[in-house]
Design goal:
single chain
């Protein structure tokens, strides 16, 4: 019996997982910053989630965030969500609402 020919694998479209912070729900002065305390990237010493005393919401680094979703589960106000974006749209951004916010693409 002849060996089966290997199928060529089509390149998979990889997704980027980013964290979105809801400005209306995030209340860093009223919570114990569970998102920051539970983040595995912060635990290894990188500044992935930053909450300053003067800020009105948490800031999550898109470059450092690994999209694990732990912060989503730990946030008492349900202010964080993780979304998937195709990586191939990076070059076609037409508008950005701000850090940790949505982008518009062509």
């Amino acid at each position: 019996m002849a060996p089966k020919p290997k199928k060529q694998q089509e390149p998979e479209e990889t997704l980027t997982r980013i964290a979105i912070v809801n400005e209306d729900r995030c209340k860093p002065k009223k919570c114990r910053q569970e998102c920051k305390k539970s983040c595995p990237v912060v635990k290894v010493g990188k500044l992935c989630i930053e909450v300053s005393s003067s800020s009105k919401l948490a800031w999550i680094s898109e470059e450092l965030c690994i999209g694990c979703g732990i912060c989503v589960k730990k946030c008492p106000f349900e202010a964080i969500m993780i979304i998937n974006l195709p990586k191939n749209l990076e070059g076609h951004t037409t508008h950005r609402y701000g850090p940790n916010s949505f982008k518009l693409h062509r």
